[in-house]
Amino acid sequence: MTKYLISFPSEAMIVPDDQMRAVSDASHAVVEEAKAAGVWVFGGGIDESVPPVLVDGDGTVAEGAHPRTRGLDGGWTVLEVPTREEALGWAARIAAACRCAQEVRAFLDDPAS
């Protein structure tokens, strides 16, 4: 089976404050469905109040992200499913719950992980 990253940037999720609770409940319901189906690996949102740091191979720590990386924020879900089509189906459920489009990427298989 392949692990898939399903994600969206913070700016994609434009939800009025009075609807945020419904979106949260809907997204948690999809999480519970994924757990019940046995495909859930992990998920969550990037804590944007904590600035990123870059740690070099020699242990040097510098403020900020990798120069070639656009900002990483928003919500992330990793699922392990047998087909890309199934990953796209879960992404559609997440998109409906979060009310924003989701990006889907496959992880390379690494037998050591």
TrEMBL record:
UniProt domain YCII-related: residue ranges: 18-96
Taxonomic superkingdom: Bacteria
Family per similarity comment: Belongs to the YciI family.
The protein's name in its UniProt record: Transcription initiation protein
Species, as recorded: Oerskovia douganii
